[in-house]
Amino acid sequence: MNAQVLDGGVNLGRLDTQHSLASEELAAQRTATIGRTFALLLIAVLVAFVSPWPAPLFVYGLLLVFALLGWCAWYVAKSRWGKPWHQYAFVLADFALLTFTLLYPNPLVPFEFPPQFSLRFGVFIYFFVLLAGLAYVYQPRLVLWGGVAGALCWAIGVGVLLSLPDTVWERDVSAGFQDLFALMAEPTFIDVGVFAQDLSVLLIAAGLLALAVKRSRNIALRQAALARERENLGRYFPKKTAQMLAERSDPFSSPSEHNSAVLFADLVAFTSWSEKHTPAETIRLLREVHGLLADIVFRHNGTLDKFIGDGVMATFGTPEPSDADASNALEAMVEMAQAFERWKQAEASDQGQGLRLAVGAHYGPVVVGNIGTRERLEFAVLGDTVNVASRLESATREVGCDGLTSAALVAAAEAENHRDAPNYRAKFTHHGPLKLRGRSQEIDVYRL
Fold first, then answer.
1. Domain extents for the chain?
2. Domain 247-447: which topology?
3. Which of 23, 95, 293, 408 can bridge 153 by disulfide, Cβ–Cβ 3.0-4.6 Å?
4. pLDDT higher for 418 or 315?
5. What is the pTM of this model?
6. How far apart are the first and last CA of the chain?
């Protein structure tokens, strides 16, 4: 079992995580746009009460443009042709429109006042509201750009006001309080110090908010990666084992040795069968058979070690042993044979006719741990027990049966005092000593 798969498929898992985060960002942007629309509606209602008619008409036009910009940004973000820079352009347009709204005098107001006087109402705080709305999309760069775009638009807007001929903005720091108060009482006076302070605070707030969004994004990515790792572990291990492995750091770094049951299952006559069928039919059949066998392995608390062409290798008792490993292996062996016959008889599996499932299982000591290099690790179950189980599966052709299990596995199952222990010998027929290929000593076996 490749460690890259255990870690979430590395690059594939990261791409899936990024895709999931992008979907969340789009959903969050839609939520923020809906909230923005409702806020604009509330402002429209408020303006109707606080502004004399027909001044609200000008404000309603600006509010409508704000709403359209929000929905357009969301629509472009979810479209296939949308580019990342489009969102930056919409943010710039938002702050430009906000600057215009706050600084440009409403032409429908029944009384006149100089445009510089609009700075006296503390309108700059709305920039922070618009900046906070960018935090929804989990993009720290976009938040930081919002601060830069806001500062740039505000600087341009105030710069235009400073360029007006009647603007008063210079002051003598040595002047007395009465002179300063008189200067500040001028409707066209602009306090440059306050202006610089506003820009500084906006940029600082944008930087701090971007850092907070970046941390939230990293936490979201880390949680998504952990969830994917746990999900991938669940494809190979029972749920309890997957939970245990997910909570440990590098669980296979130190090899361990203990007794476990090892099972091999393989399709007999698959090579000749595949010659008569298309690659698509071959893949479809392998997926059905692999899925059938994998479900049985998991149902009996086994670990799916690997797919080997048209077969599988499963272990019972790895990475940690239990008090029912041998019993689970024998039950899985019997169920595999029965389930495969039912599958062959089903109408949907007519193409499986002519195939036979061979199963071999053994019980004994194994070594569990990582093998390979630092760049590429593989979880492995090694030992003579694995070799014997593989040879037993191959020997089913010589014996002429669907399954062979060692007497050691049957004895271990009976020793576990499992609920079905008395029935094991009834499900198998004692075959006696059998000489396996590549082994000098015979092994006592039972046939299914």
1. 3-231, 247-447
2. Alpha-Beta Plaits (3.30.70)
3. 95
4. 315
5. 0.53
6. 28
